[in-house]
Specification:
The structure holds two protein chains of two kinds. Chain A has helices at about 1-10, 20-25, 30-45, 50-75, 85-100, 105-130, 135-160, 170, 180, 185-195, 215-230, 235-245, 245-250, 255-280, 295-305, 315-330, 340-365, and strands at about 165, 185, 210-215, 285. Chain A is mainly α. Chain A has a single domain (about 25-360), classed as Orthogonal Bundle (ABC transporter involved in vitamin B12 uptake, BtuC), CATH 1.10.3470. In chain B, helix 6 links the parallel strand 9 and strand 10 (about 200-205). The radius of gyration of chain B is 19 Å and the shape is globular. Helices cover about 30% and strands about 25% of the residues of chain B. Chain B contains nine helices and twelve strands. Chain B has helices spanning about 45-50, 75-80, 95-100, 120-130, 150-160, 180-195, 205-210, 235-245, 250, and strands at about 5-15, 20-30, 35-40, 60-65, 65-70, 80-85, 110, 115, 165-170, 200-205, 215-220, 225-230. In chain B, the strands form three sheets. A six-stranded mixed sheet of chain B has the order 6-9-10-3-11-12, with helices on both faces. In chain B, strands 2-1-4-5 form a four-stranded antiparallel sheet, with helices on one face. Classes of the chains: A mainly alpha, B alpha/beta.
């Protein structure tokens, strides 16, 4: 490779500084955002925010949103939107809740069934979009309402009139798969760290942080897997290609339809995973679960560098985008600001991110 | 002249009641540049789409290396060695040159779940192929959007050649280019031809075709008006043929009786 690099050297070209190279990374904006938000809260928030338990506090909602955001980011890179993922969380919650409570199935069956239904709806979404050529924005907007409505009706059927289905915790207690989707991981390690004094303890000696909430581990694992797929596998190339230019991709032999439908299914499965984790965590499911999450996930993906036109973006960016969210949602409660500033922040952040992305895209393609 | 790689005999293509091609015969031998000329609506696009497997001919036969062929998809044609560089170039501006180069045919290493993109090999092949075509890339990760139109055309051609094209169909490669970029693309065509690839150069610019062409076939209203070899036909005659063949009768001699 080195000799290639030498031959390639072109005298008309200025040497690119490290900063300029960095500017071309799609996730730069999100990382800069994390730094800015951290600095902001270092000055304004109670110091408890950046203790280990404070970090776990904001990473938990960040992780729940982030799993959705990474799915949404992959789909956006592939050139499509899914506005139904928030409703999909409620729908998958209903499927999962009724599997374990109403039908008394073990997790070994309930979880695959939930994913199966989610993937099925994702495939339907994708097939309609691809077959009709309609914008995915409209098709999935329809499913936003359809799934929310079905979840409401279904919950009423399952519970005999209530919109909340309780009793999940009792139903899953003792199931060998439970620790994979709920509670804290590495509690042994944390207990040990507490004993040697690395982790703070309560007065009775139990550690203040009992472990890492499993959703954070899922979040990190999914971010890594998504990044690997995008950057280091042929499928990643196909996703970028399908989103960049559908015709060009399929003329070059990329199975665009298959890629897009798989992405719709993946996004729906991300929503189902969030549903499973949050339902097991709270012990119940309700029809408002995942409300407005589709927008937050898309905003996190955009903050993470995804272009609305597709073909560009990063899973790591969405990862940091979601962390910014978690930090602000939870962080504001550590400050004297009104919590509802969150919404203002959300809109502001989105606008800045889109402007920034637009600028970056022009840099990358060399447009002026 | 050698044996043709691809021979298309009496190709007809009907779309409903529209006859787009009404019996077109065409062949390409290795190492030649066969120009297909025609005005807009002459059927050039339909014809090359038939050759590249996008359309199935309604009538007529395609033989490749002497064997009858029946392409079901562009993929089939591609695998048989017929590569097409369409006008849109099938390039994605936001993606790097390497990623575009290998789009849909990525080199991998490892196996099973560890099968991954061999990005180093890909970069190396891409930079080398581009250098063979006379273009020094800034780097393999340079976005295609930063290349000029002629350079993009060259990437598309280099890609086709790398993936073993025996016949390279270029759909109006010079139509949107400036003078210097056009001459670069024509030089690239010459390079590719010397590697033994049969080039089908579609254009409606007589000058460009005469600059590199070995043989010239003119399409008009879905029919071939004949094939002429280099030196047998002048620019004016080609121009007249494209314009509608009104002067066909007076040209019959110079077309060598192939009408």
């Amino acid at each position: 490779m080195t000799d290639v690099a030498q031959i390639v050297a072109d005298e008309r070209l200025k040497k690119e500084s490290f900063g300029a190279r960095l500017m071309k990374r799609p996730e730069l904006g999100a990382i800069a955002g994390v730094v800015l938000v951290t600095i902001f809260f270092l000055f304004t928030a109670d110091s408890a925010m950046f203790t280990l338990s404070g970090i776990m506090n904001f990473m938990t909602p960040a992780a729940q949103l982030g799993i959705l955001a990474i799915g949404a980011a992959m789909l956006m890179i592939g050139g499509e939107f899914d506005l139904s993922i928030g409703s999909m969380v409620a729908f998958a919650g209903l499927i999962f809740g009724s599997c374990v409570v109403t039908f008394g199935l073990p997790l070994l069956l309930a979880i695959p069934i939930t994913f199966l239904f989610a993937a099925l709806v994702g495939a339907v979404n994708g097939s309609i979009v691809l077959r009709t050529g309609l914008p995915s924005f409209i098709v999935t907007l329809a499913f936003l309402f359809v799934l929310r409505g079905v979840s409401l009706v279904g919950l009423k059927l399952a519970t005999g009139g209530s919109t909340q289905l309780r009793g999940v915790r009792d139903a899953i207690e003792g199931d060998f798969l439970t620790p994979l989707f709920s509670g804290d991981a590495f509690s042994g390690v944390f207990a040990w760290l507490a004993r040697i004094g690395v982790v703070e303890t309560f007065k009775n000696g139990t550690p203040k942080v009992p472990g890492i909430p499993v959703e954070i581990l899922w979040f990190i694992a999914i971010a890594l897997a998504a990044t690997y797929i995008l950057l280091r596998t042929p499928y990643g190339n196909w996703i970028f290609a399908a989103g960049g230019d559908r015709n060009a991709a399929s003329n070059s032999g990329v199975p665009v339809r298959r890629v897009k439908i798989a992405l719709f299914m993946l996004t729906a499965c991300c929503a189902a995973l969030v549903a499973i984790i949050t339902v097991m965590d709270s012990g119940s499911t309700d029809a408002r679960r995942g409300f407005m999450k589709e927008f937050e996930a898309i905003i996190a993906a955009v903050i993470g560098g995804c272009l609305l036109t597709g073909g560009y973006g990063s899973a790591i960016g969405a990862f940091f985008g979601a962390i910014i969210f978690g930090m602000v949602v939870i962080g504001l409660s550590y400050t004297n600001f009104d919590q509802d500033w969150f919404q203002v922040f959300l809109g502001g952040m989105l606008l800045i991110a889109v402007l920034f992305n637009n600028y970056i895209r022009k840099r990358v393609t060399g447009e002026r | 002249m050698g044996k043709p790689i691809i021979h298309m005999e009496n190709i007809e293509k009907h779309f409903g009641n529209i006859i787009a091609l009404a019996g077109v015969s065409f062949d390409v031998v290795p190492g030649e540049c066969h120009c297909l000329l025609g005005d807009n609506g002459a059927g050039k696009s339909t014809f090359i789409k038939t050759m590249s497997g996008v359309h199935k001919p309604t009538k007529g036969s395609i033989t490749l290396d002497g064997k009858p062929m029946n392409f079901d998809s562009p993929r089939d044609a591609m695998e048989a060695g017929i590569a097409t560089v369409f006008q849109d170039l099938a390039m994605i501006p936001l993606m790097s040159v390497t990623r575009n180069f290998f789009m849909g045919r990525e080199p991998t290493k490892g196996s099973g779940p560890f099968k991954r993109l061999d990005i180093n090999t890909a970069n190396e092949i891409c930079v080398n192929s581009m250098r063979e075509m006379g273009i020094n890339l800034r780097g393999p990760d340079q976005a295609v959007g930063t290349l000029s139109g002629g350079e993009r055309q060259t990437v598309a051609i280099a890609r086709a050649v790398h993936f073993g094209a025996k016949v390279l169909i270029l759909d109006e490669p010079t139509s949107a280019l400036g003078v210097r970029q056009t001459s670069n693309v024509l030089a690239t065509i010459d390079r590719v031809r010397k590697q033994g690839v049969g080039v089908v150069f579609i254009t409606h610019n007589v000058r460009h075709s005469l600059a590199v062409g070995d043989r010239f076939t003119v399409l008009n209203r879905g029919k071939t008006l004949g094939t002429a070899a280099r030196g047998e036909i002048t620019a004016e005659e080609l121009q007249d043929l494209m314009a509608g063949g009104q002067e066909l009768a007076s040209l019959e001699g110079s077309l060598g009786g192939t009408v």
